[in-house]
């Protein structure tokens, strides 16, 4: 079979490999996403990934053999986390942040290949109505579902997302779907901002006056929830500055090191800064269930004019 293999820093090639052996169901892959993590691995900057490694942790395919739950030919995606089941964190009921967490496509062979072998317990059924390209996005969407849950997001919340990359944009679409009072996306890339506005999102530059204008439009002093999806020091600073008293900041991006935080602001406003990593099985299942309705809604929003009229500010705050 053909597979995309990482051999070492800046060395990735399509290779012919034997079919994967061992435990699990052989899945014929139809589509596999390329994640920011894959690019980090390619650059040789991932702390765990070691070549030779078949990449790919976000994929969709069909089972090639019968297994308990899935008859041959079932359309499936994979919950890619591998937890040890024995550490304190696993035993405390949080296996998604296992102390020695591993993933398919990062620590062991993944789905950027014609075939991948995955234990049946890690497979989830994917509806036939969703395209392969959309179905391969269940994993990044699960990151967003988890971030929203960790941040304490509730319908009606006024939200800012700093960093409109794939995760920031997917999060915006998800929170809009979940009934956010408003969602403002902030980014430094003007071309990206224009593209998002065309798609019906409230996308703005990260200049201070853009945050102030977004808040003024809502008649508010700060956002209820701010999601930092940029991985930059300035984004962390802005996230704290523009969160309302008692609001929360979720750090969704993976920072390369320590960042300065204004602890006086944090204390005086009683802000909550929340860490978030990957997703639980429940988050992943919710993401799979959201694929079809979200794909439909996004297709519809492309047809709508940019900057749709906002609903009135939420009365409960
Ligand atoms: Zn990923
Ligand atoms: Zn563990």
Automatic annotation (TrEMBL):
Residues 166-291 form the Alcohol dehydrogenase-like C-terminal domain. The keyword Oxidoreductase applies. Keywords: Oxidoreductase. Pfam families: ADH_N, ADH_zinc_N. Residues 24-128 form the Alcohol dehydrogenase-like N-terminal domain. InterPro entries: ADH-like_C, ADH-like_N, GroES-like_sf, NAD(P)-bd_dom_sf, Zn_alcohol_dh. The keyword Oxidoreductase applies. Signal peptide: none annotated. This is Alcohol dehydrogenase catalytic domain-containing protein.
